[in-house]
Structures are given as C-alpha cells and as structure tokens.
Amino acid sequence: MRILITGGAGYIGSVAVEMAAAAGHEPVVLDSLWRGHAGAVLPGVPVHRVDLRDAAAVTATMAAVRPDVVMHFAAVTLVGESVERPLDYFGTNVVGGHNLLAAMEAAGVGRLVFSSTAAVYGEPEVIPIREDAPTVPINPYGRSKLMVEQMLPWHAGAWGLSYCCFRYFNVAGATPTRGEDHSPETHLIPVALQTLLGQRDALRVFGTDYPTPDGTAVRDYVHVMDLVDAHLLALPHLDRPLGAFNLGTRDGFSVRNVVQAVEGVTDRTLPVVEVGRRAGDPPALVADSTRARIELGWDPSRSTLERMVGDAWEWHRRHPNGYRGT
Ligand SMILES: NC(=O)c1ccc[n+]([C@@H]2O[C@H](COP(=O)([O-])OP(=O)(O)OC[C@H]3O[C@@H](n4cnc5c(N)ncnc54)[C@H](O)[C@@H]3O)[C@@H](O)[C@H]2O)c1
After folding, report:
1. Is the peptide bond before 241 cis (omega within 30 degrees of 0)?
2. Which of 80, 85, 168, 280 has a 20 to 30 A CA-CA distance from 24?
3. What's the Cα-to-Cα distance from 280 to each of 83, 123, 172, 211, 289, rounded to whole Å?
C-alpha cells in the first residue's frame, strides 16, 4: 500500500516509515520538519515539506500522492507547552487535522490511522484504563487530540471514512537506526540516558509522595516497534470505522523502576534529584489493551523495560547528538 505518513520525520513516524517499507509498503512523508529531522527519514522515501496548517499545500500534496491510507502522526505533543500556547496546539492538531481530513475527502482517500494519546483520559478513576473510560482531558494537548477523535465518526457517516484511533501510553525504545531525539526532551528514559551521557546534571524525579507502591508516578511504557506493529496490523481491518484502541502493556512502571532499569542496563549510577510533583501529573496511567490484542492480534513482546531501555541506550550511545550532523 502507498501510505502517507504525516510526522514521518519525527520519533514514531520515522520508525513507522522504516517498518512500513520493510513490510513491503510504499511510505511517503508529509512533515514540516519543525520538530522532526530530515536525517530520520529512510533514504529514498519522498518527503513533502508541508505545514498541516497550510490547507492548500496539504490538499495539493494529498492529490499528488494519492495514498491508499494516511497514518497521521504529525502533531505538537508537549503537555506543558500546550498550557502555555494553546493556539499552537489547537492550530496544528485540530485545524491541521481538519485540513488533512478535507484533503482526504477531496482526493477520495478514505482510510486513516490517527495517533491519539492517553492524555484524552485526564486523571482516570479506574486503572487499568479501558477505552470506554470517561475522556476528560486536563490540558490543551489532550483536548486537541480528543477533538480530532470526535470529528472522525462524522466523516465516517458523511463520506465513508474508515479510521482507527490509537491511544498511545508512553512510547520508548528505538530501532538500531532510529531513536528519540526531541528538543526539548521531556520523556523519562531519554532524559535519564542524556544524564548518563553528561548532557544533564541529574535526573529530576517529580513527586515521591504519590499513592503508588514506591511513591513515584507509574506509567505504562510500550516499545516504539510494538506500537508501529499495531498500525500495520490495523491496515487489513480499515474497511470500516474501528474507533479507539489503547496501546500499552498493562505493566505499570514507577519512575524508580525506570531508574533501576537504566542503572542495571548501563551498569552506571544515575544522579537523581527528588523534587515536588508537577501540576497535572496523575499518579498512575496504565492501559487495558485487551481490545488491540484480541481484535488486531497485537502482541507487544518487545515492551519489557530492559529491552526498551537497552534499545534506547544503544541508539543514544551511537547518536549522542541525535540526528544533528546526519
Ligand atoms: N512519544 C510518545 O510517547 C507519544 C505518546 C502519546 C501520543 N503520541 C503521539 O504520537 C505522535 C508522534 O509523536 P512523536 O513522539 O513521534 O512526536 P515528534 O515530535 O517526534 O514528531 C512529530 C512530527 O510532527 C511534525 N509536525 C509538527 N507540527 C507540524 C505541522 N504543523 N505540520 C506538519 N508537521 C508537523 C514535526 O516536525 C515532527 O516531525 C503525535 O501525534 C503524538 O501526539 C506520542
């Protein structure tokens, strides 16, 4: 299949490009390169440098590429930044999502895989979280993703869009050639590894008084290759609207668990500073992903903490400056 991968120069999108090509598909990238890296894109894959907020450019690209399916990873993704700059989040994520849908309808492209997030649940009352849990986002990032999710059934009804929404929990790990290079980096595992590489003084642990077994916040980590597997597994099912699937493992790991895994894998001591809770950080976010396992046959077998940290460490050691210079 020809797959238009928006955000294909970003962390997850670039792995999707790599794995889609390896599976025999024909990936094409749409990315503004605002936060992505040209060097992350598999060589030979066409890159359309387009901003999703530019409706005319998105429409022209869709008409030129005419993909069989769109995987929509492109977004702005930082929770704190979304509170400070909601216009950017509703602009890129909601207006950009709307522009993409309009371009798809105009070009007769009827299949979409949408990257959503656990942030749509806000502060869930029941753990592990099922897809039918209340969606009550507590920041513009989560709200912007939920707004796009909520548009999709209307497009399905009006012009026959087939889609699925994947609600990712914490994505981690790397392939041998592609890894996580965000600027700013806010994710725990790469921040810990950057600390070991001397790029930061210490890892700050936000909150040690949560109602969790060791007092630190608990999150559900999924290997980026397992995550992309789900996208490829969904393709044969995209003949109808599929709704939302959680992508996590149900194994919650605390910040202290991650620190121990990083120290174990790297055989180094991680300097840690304990500080207060961050506003808006729920104590635990853990997914019930039964739906993806049963309906798509998804098996996140790479998503052990050791493997995710080990693969990320390999990539960071080999690319201490990320994609800079590539
Ligand atoms: N990384 C995670 O743990 C995680 C968790 C939940 C959901 N997600 C979702 O997964 C998707 C990918 O996340 P990621 O970590 O790879 O992010 P990323 O920042 O690495 O990649 C996003 C890409 O989108 C591009 N982009 C941003 N604004 C754009 C615009 N206006 N027009 C065109 N392209 C634009 C960036 O240049 C970048 O290449 C996002 O939709 C994110 O919300 C990620």
Report:
1. no
2. 168
3. 11, 8, 21, 15, 24
> What is the rounded distance in angstroms from the CA atom of residue 246 to the CA atom of residue 8?
21
| Plot region of 37 (φ>0 → left; ψ -120 to 50 → alpha; else → beta) | beta
Pocket residue to mutate for ligand 1, from 4, 19, 35, most atoms within 8 A of Cβ: 35
To the nearest 5 percent, what fractions of the chain are helix, strand and coil? Answer: 40, 20, 40
- The ligand 1 atom nearest the CA atom of 33: 37
Please give the distance, rounded to the nearest whole angstrom, from the Cα atom of residue 269 to the centre of ligand 1. Answer: 31
Q: What is the phi/psi pair of residue 275, to 5°?
A: -130, 180
Residue 281: pLDDT above 90?
A: no
Reported confidence tier of residue 279, pLDDT bands at 50, 70, 90: confident
- Separation between Cα atoms, residue 170 and residue 256, nearest integer Å: 16
- What's the burial of 324, exposed, middle or buried (CB within 10 Å: 0-12/13-18/19+)? exposed
* CB of 182 shorter than 6 A to ligand 1: yes
**Among the four given CATH numbers 3.30.365.10, 3.10.450.350, 3.40.50.720, 3.10.25.10, the one describing domain 2-172+222-247:** 3.40.50.720
> Domains of the chain: which residue ranges?
2-172+222-247, 188-219+251-318
- Asked if 115 and 52 touch (Cβ cutoff 8 Å), the reply is no
> 2: phi > 0 → left, psi -120 to 50 → alpha, else beta; which?
beta
Among residues 44, 23, 311, 269, the alpha carbon closest in space to that of 178 is found at: 311
Report DSSP state, residue 42.
P
pLDDT range class, residue 324, cuts 50, 70, 90: confident
User: What's the topology of domain 188-219+251-318?
Assistant: UDP-galactose 4-epimerase; domain 1 (3.90.25)
Report the separation in Å between the CA atom of 162 and the middle of ligand 1, taken as the mean of its atom positions.
22
Query: Which pLDDT value is given to residue 326?
Result: 59
- Whether 163 is catalytic: no
